[in-house]
Write a structure and sequence with these properties.
Length: 317
């Protein structure tokens, strides 16, 4: 069983798919056009897809679909938050499925990608064969307070201090709101971009126990991640239910689900994965010792690829 990343591949098809009067989504298809269809759901929201995301999957077996979510990556218009909620992303996925002509597909998502995978499956359970999830993100109030206010601050106090000290003391009791105001509600573009950079750097530095390299320049990725995340998180994911994920799991309790979660994932707590599986009947949960949040580290990627290889071997027979 191959548990290493597959060699780099290029898409056999790329295109822009118009999904409404505002947004056009970048889509790419890789691997075997007649193979088992699987869609990769990136995180953030606002992160976009990279080339390495293609390499989890055996290109001879899987028909690999990747797309950049609204407002980020190669989708247009860049940085647009108009008509940009998780429910819009769900419908974008459905438009992609229909455009390609897929009857049922597999979903593969980590972090916010797991949130999106679950939300799509609540709406279209009959279109999902199986879920492959990593770094479960419930995206509720508890998750947001942990990451942006109290919790992660005790594990990465040095990095959290940089994140907090950008905000005046009188606003530090609600850092999410303070960053939202600076990114969305002011006309100072320099201040807005600086806030986006500090937000993005904080996320990157706490992703793994070994510090990730930080680019000193403000990159497009920094802007899309901060702008779209604050839009989603400040508006409580545009849900009317703080525990939307847990309260809807009864709809998909019988859909098979393989989950990998890093023991040292401080972005999305392992606790969330344990809460999730309480409501599932057909699941596998692997705690990846020594792994953090990123799906691309050696320890985590081997578990995720093992899930995909086992699925392939079971269904090739």
């Amino acid at each position: 069983m191959n548990l290493d990343f597959y060699p780099s591949i290029e898409p056999f098809k790329t295109y822009m798919l118009d999904v409404d009067e505002t947004h056009s989504i970048y889509v790419e298809e890789c691997g075997n056009p007649n193979g088992e269809p699987i869609v990769f759901l990136h995180g953030g929201p606002g992160a976009g897809c990279g080339k390495k995301a293609r390499r989890f999957f055996d290109p001879e077996y899987y028909h690999i679909i990747l797309f950049d979510q609204r407002g980020c990556g190669r989708s247009k218009p860049f940085l647009s938050i108009k008509n940009n909620t998780i429910f819009h992303l769900v419908e974008d996925m459905e438009k992609i499925r229909k455009h390609i002509g897929i009857e049922k597909w597999l979903l593969f998502g980590g972090s916010f990608g797991s949130t999106l995978a679950l939300t799509y499956t609540f709406h279209y359970p009959e279109k999902v064969k199986k879920l492959f999830l990593q770094g479960i993100c419930l995206s509720n109030k508890s998750d947001l307070l942990w990451f942006f206010q109290n919790g992660l601050s005790e594990i990465y106090p040095d990095e959290f201090k940089k994140f907090k000290d950008f905000i005046p003391p009188e606003e530090q009791n609600n850092l999410l709101e303070a960053y939202y105001k600076r990114i969305h509600q002011n006309k100072d573009e320099v201040l807005m971009k600086k806030a986006c950079k500090i937000w993005s750097d904080y996320e990157l530095r706490v992703m793994e126990s070994e510090m990730s390299p930080i680019n000193s320049e403000i990159m497009p990725h920094d802007l899309s991640l901060a702008l779209i995340e604050t839009h989603y998180f400040y508006n409580k994911m545009h849900w009317n239910d703080d525990n939307y994920i847990l309260n809807n799991l009864y709809k998909i309790e019988n859909i098979p689900c393989s989950i990998a979660h890093g023991r040292l994932d401080f972005n999305c707590r392992l606790y969330s994965a344990f809460e999730l599986v309480k409501y599932l009947k057909d699941f596998e949960l692997v705690i990846v010792e020594g792994a953090g949040h990123s799906p691309f580290t050696e320890k985590m990627s081997k578990v995720l690829i093992k899930f995909l290889e086992e699925y392939k071997e079971k269904n090739e027979r």
